[in-house]
Amino acid sequence: MYDLIRDSSFGQIVRYMTKNKYLQYSEEKEGFQHPHYFQETEKPETRCLPTSPPEVDGHCGTPQHLSTIATTNNEADRGCNHLRPTEIDTESEDLEDALETNPIKRLVTQQSLHTLEKERTLVIEPIKTAQGVILVDWYTTDDPDNPQNWGRGKKAFVAFLICIYSFAVYLGSSIYIGGVPQIIEKFGVSIEAASLGLALYVLAYGAGAMVFSPISEIPAVGRNPPYVITVIIFAVLWIPTALVDNFGGLLVLRFLTGFFGSPCLATGGATFGDIFPLIQVPYLLVIWGGATVLAPALGPIIGNFSATAENWRWVSWIMLWLSGPISGLLLFSLPETSSSTILYYRARRLRKLTGNAAFKSQAEIDQAELTTRQIVYNALIKPTEINILDPAVLYSTIYTSLVYGIFYSFFESFPLVYQGIYGFSFRVSSLPFIGVLAGLAAAGGLVIFHWHFFVVKPVMRLGVSALGEPEKRLVPALFACFWLPIGLFIFGWTARPSIHWIATIVGLSLSIVGTFTIIVCMLLYLAFTYPKYAASLFAANDFARSSLAAGAIMFSRPMFINLGIHWGVSLLGFLVLICCVLLFCLWNWGSMLRARSRFAVS
Fold first, then answer.
1. Which UniProt keywords are given for this protein, alphabetically ordered (predicted)?
2. Is the pLDDT of residue 517 over 70?
């Protein structure tokens, strides 16, 4: 609990106001001792990194944890209580050769070794470069400040905070639908104009991801400030949104709430990667993704019942009551999870404590070599360049955007189907969204089953080589992709008075199985194929999805009215059917595309 409060934004404020007198870190406490951070010891043994990483218990070695590997190979059996120091030349060709290994496999290897080593306390001696820089690392293999070493309870609590935060942001999008009829009446606008309140919110949380994702990657900033500052603004903005008295102001406030709610959508996955081993992250992505799909499905139900019981402003008050406590939880109990940020501030404390300016974190060295122009280019321009020049990325962006836009088109088709065809009241017309639950359960189960039995188990048995090619991440989508067009055709062609309404809900559930599985698998494919650009590509993908979803909200209702529900939904079904064929092409010939790509990892 002490660490949780100290590392939260509230704890950092207390430290700043008391000049670090309270909630101190280990380096600031009296009596702090570490054998390698106070005095110059004998010159470390100089060794060159091998051009091909050594094998350690079936895993390949890595330059970042070479000292760890040396201990496992040479000293562990002799009961040594510290890791052998290593002096390296960061400019050497050997280091470049070692770094060319697949970063995904390298990370899995690091974490596999770390899992074995953290069961006992081994002191880690920092690496000293030929330039005299001492790289600040974790003090021991079980260092409690390392997010990967946190207990299960602490990890689960942080994951819960991110999931409930994301749930609230997504709920804020569709809960607005409940107040649309009263907004039309009060402000005298058309239903198309009123729909802008939903479209702008969705567009804004995609645009915000492009801003807050690169900010969270800056070591001096980290994940916490973007999370906490924006969630407080997000919560406060619901007050004027509930009180606004003109339509233009309402639209502006809806855009701002979506924009400031976006950090959790931009970097939530990165937070899971900070605290959980990569091999476990997909489990968390399923839970997190489920929350982000369930929330907009429940939004119309909550909004319809609350707005008809009170008024259109009530939906904003509900969002305030939900986001207010969440912002408080994040302020007082969300710790920093970025290892780069944690080590960045540890290096600063060590420099202050020892007076030795040679102590630097890896992030400081990396950032020193980048100009502001390069940072902006890598965060904003590079993802666009990859999307244009790499056909696999372009296809994944188009496909995920299309299925996401189709999901949001349901918000426009439901009133036409359940009020117009089946005669449901406005309040009850949102209840069919409960069918999303069945689809989510099936899709989540499919992804988890495949990951556990076809990835985790083989890796545990055969080692990291069992990960295979990135195209293997697409296998669940190959089974589920056809469920989306089938579900759409069922929904569209059973929506008639002569057929019971339950048939349309079956179609909705089947389409959700396809939607959810496709998005999760495509994002995993991007992460395993383009790990160097994963964070920026996720933000770009999120922006593309949100942009098309915002467009779908505006064009789907006129399309359904002009073509009819049957052919309007069928048109969307035919489009995703073409994408299904292309998905099999990507699975079959993806390795050829990667071979021609200058961005993909070999």
1. Membrane, Transmembrane, Transmembrane helix
2. yes
